Amino acid sequence: MAEPEFTATGVRIGKGLRSLTRAGQVRISDGRLELLTSYGGTIDSAPLQAVRASRPWFGSEDRAVADLGGKRYVLTLGEHDPAPGESGPPAARRFLDAVRRAAGRNG
Predict the structure, then answer these.
(1) Cα–Cα distance, 71 to 88 (Å, whole number)
(2) Where are the domains of the chain?
(3) CB under 8 Å to 77, separation ≥6 — which residues?
(4) C-alpha closest to that of 45 among 64, 61, 30
(5) Secondary structure class of 19 (helix, strand, coil)
(6) 6-103 topology per CATH
(7) Apex CA 36: angle with CA 32 and CA 15, to 5°?
(8) DSSP of 22-80, one letter per residue?
């Protein structure tokens, strides 16, 4: 198995107003986006060609919306990034960039 192109832990994953996990994982690897529980169980998975990711119309910088084959998830990624003492883009922006790069889309 190849090294993941993007991984984030401690991610709050929600569907609508319902929280599915408060400490989940998001991983992009081998052309797939995977949403995982804190124990590594799969919440949902889809090939990147079937994934649409964007910023929500409202909300903070640490949120992203991912549509996996028609199922919409709200991801809160920013609690642990950037690492202490380091500067860098918020995790939500890094996630959106990783989805575009891995899917072969520009910008």
Answers:
(1) 30
(2) 6-103
(3) 8, 11, 26, 62, 63, 64, 90, 91, 92, 95
(4) 30
(5) strand
(6) PH-domain like (2.30.29)
(7) 95
(8) EEEEEEEETTEEEEE-TTS-EEEEEEGGGEEEE--SSS-TTEEEEEETTEEEEEE-GGG
Q: How confident is the model at residue 1 (pLDDT cuts 50, 70, 90)?
A: low
The answer to whether the beta carbons of residues 6 and 26 sit under 8 Å apart is: yes
Tens-place pLDDT, residues 26-37 = 999 989 999 999
Instruction: In whole angstroms, give the CA distance from residue 7 to residue 77.
Output: 10
Contact present, 26 and 91 (Cβ < 8 Å): no
Largest CA-CA distance found in the chain, in angstroms, rounded: 38
